[in-house]
Amino acid sequence: MNETVLEVTAKQGIKQSDDVQSLKRSLGLKELVAYGLAFIAPVAPLTTFGFVWNVSGGFIALAYVVATICMYFTARSYVTMSEQVQSAGSIYSYVRFGLGNFAGFIGGWLILLDYLLIPALVFVLMSFSTNILVPSISRENWILILVGTSFLINWFGVNVTAKASLYAVIAQFLMVGGVVALAIFALQDGKGTGAVTLEPLYNSVDFSWHYVLAGASICVLSFLGFDAITTLGEETRTKDPKMIGRAIMIVLALCGVVFTVTTLVVGNLMKGIEYSNPATAIFEILAIQVGPWASTTLAWLLAIIVGFSNTLPMQSSVARVLYAMGRDRQLPHFLSKLHPKFQTPYMAMLVATIVTLATALIMKDNLDILASLVNFGALSGFLLLHVAVFVRFGLNNPDRKWFVHIIVPIVGAAIVLAVFSGMDRFAMILGGTWLSAGIIYGLVNRQKTKIVMEV
Fold first, then answer.
1. What's the CA gap between 390 and 384, in Å, rounded?
2. If DSSP codes are grouped into helix, strand and coil, which group holds residue 353?
3. Number of domains in the chain
4. For residue range 159-179, what is the model confidence (pLDDT) as tens digits?
5. Which residues of 181-216 are buried (b: 16+ CB within 10 A; e: fewer)?
6. Residue 5's pLDDT is what?
7. CB atoms closer than 10 angstroms to residue 292
8. What is d(CA 45, CA 218) in angstroms, rounded to the nearest whole number?
């Protein structure tokens, strides 16, 4: 593991380029944590409450505990790689470092499926609620408004995006805190179980690991986004190799605690409640147990705060992966152009925004397919990450550490494969088509000159 960057890259056939551009280093730990939290969204368990409750058999809080433990292994593999590779490319750069150029390209291609489509998914979701609140504006126009707002904020640089994300995260924590407080007051008033009990976490009568694990498989997807922090590897104020890793683990820990506590408290309101639609379960629960005003208020806050802020880090992240792959000539080189004033990858941002907008408009009535494709891209990227860590540090390293270099990637890969096993067949076919297209493009592109990756 004492090889220099040039030694590693020479073995991979990479040549030095004179026109390598670098992003501006301006972010600290606070900004990185805010960025990751904004991507995941502290309100995530509220928006998916009905789905997880149904599948988990009511053990929703325990499902989030299990999901947090599962995601630890993927987060730890990210930490391992982030300490070695400070690059904007995330999975692309990490897999390239661990398995070589072609595998790196495939890793980047797969994670692009996640990063390109997840903003479109959020825009489509938000267009439903905003259209209900303001029906005079069509869903298509709401998508245009949401995409345009996010693009303009990201245009002015990662500092602006990070500050907007910080304010959005604070607002979301206040929202979650408000819902939890209202739930506690309702419980004290005799609603639900009449008190905060541990029933959503465990009860010996109805307990079943089958339900818990099924729920956890959905909860795992609520954590998608902590990995976006790694796309900012070239924009930290210092070159501290451990900063990105610290931010990842802080975000995972915070979300694990918040998600578990939120679902534990709200889950106690479910006694005697039947909702008509799992997608709107939280609104129906609040309307029945607290009052219609609480449901309407939450709907407005979600539409305004999440709708106009949650996609900021999403669009920013995909732009940086496109930038890194364009800079390395794995994708068209114009994607690596930086704005002369704001030092943002503006061409990559433009392309990402166009793709996101087109996808959102075309797939506005196919949420299930969009969600499945996002999951396919993320899980495929995670799988390659674990393999890269195992090969690079577990097999080819005499100073290997058994836990982080061998046990973590093996367990992490097993968890990813388990989640894959329950994925929709049609999504697997579409994801496989995307992967096949990437393999063909990568093989054609293999002969082009690549640049030295920064490690």
1. 10
2. helix
3. 1
4. 666 677 788 888 999 999 999
5. ebbbebbeeebbbeebbebbbeeeeeeeeebbbbbb
6. 37
7. 11
8. 10
Range of the domain at 399: 5-445
Using an 8 Å Cβ cutoff, are 317 and 116 in contact?
Answer: no
Position 450 in a domain: no
pLDDT tens column, 116-162:
888 888 888 778 777 777 888 888 898 888 888 877 776 765 566 66
Rounded to 5 degrees, φ, ψ at 236 are -80, 150
Query: Which string of b and e fits 256-272 if b means at least 16 CB within 10 Å?
Result: bebbbbbbbbbbbbbee
Name the residue among 223, 171, 172, 203 with its Cα closest to residue 267.
203
Whether residue 455 lies inside any domain: the answer is no
Residue 453 lies in a domain: no
CATH number, residue 197: 1.20.1740.10
Cα separations in angstroms, 96 against 18, 77, 378, 384, 449: 21, 14, 17, 10, 15
More confident: 181 or 449: 181
> What does the alpha-carbon distance between residue 374 and residue 18 come to, in Å, rounded to a whole number?
36
Query: Is the confidence at residue 24, as pLDDT, over 80?
Result: no
Q: Which of 354, 348, 316, 325 is nearest to 335 (CA)?
A: 348
- pTM across the whole model: 0.79
Nearest to 251 by CA among 192, 178, 173: 173
Confirm if 303 and 149 have CB atoms less than 8 A apart. Answer: no
Which of 180, 142, 175 shows the shortest CA–CA distance to 305? 175
Q: Most distant CA pair in the chain: distance in Å? A: 70
Surface-to-core class of residue 363, CB atoms within 10 Å of its CB (0-12 exposed, 13-18 middle, 19+ buried): middle
Tell me whether residue 452 is in a domain: no
CA dihedral 358, 364, 365, 371 (to 10 degrees): 90
Half-sphere exposure of 236 (CA within 13 A, CB side): 26
